[in-house]
Fold this protein.
Amino acid sequence: MRLIVGPLAEAARLCAEERPSHLLSWLSPPAAPPELSAAIAPRHRLLLTSHDVCAPGDGYDPPNTSHLVALLDFAAGWDGERPMLIHCWAGVSRSTAAAYAIACLKRPDLAEAELAARLRAAAPSATPNPLIVQLADDQLGRAGRMARAIAGIGRGCETGLGAPFALRLA
């Protein structure tokens, strides 16, 4: 069970190389679904749109509960036989937060801090959007443990675009 995470600029290459069964795109509004791979069935694609912000602000559409409900429902239908590709524009914030939320959903037997440490080891630049993490924490009933674990790994190293990485869940 692997999550492949990266920036939009690498998504087509990652689709071709990794052959994911599911595709999660988290882009800024207005966004159209990216044309990446005809091999991924439409029912195995999810496009979420919000700005990469941590709080409501004038002119910005922040992540919200409906995004997380859709994300978790989508991930619940993934069997993990083939990887899931998750991307946002930079592959640093929204996509890494989504990957962490999916990891916590799929591996409830592992501590949130263990999954956060795996994320940091796989992606030194990962800086998961804290609002997405908090919303996932609330939806999964983790009582703040997800948010504390991500705060514990700190901000990732500075980068313009994150390097693609795999987060292994098995």
Notes: Helices lie at 8-18, 65-76, 94-106, 112-122, 130-140, 145-153.
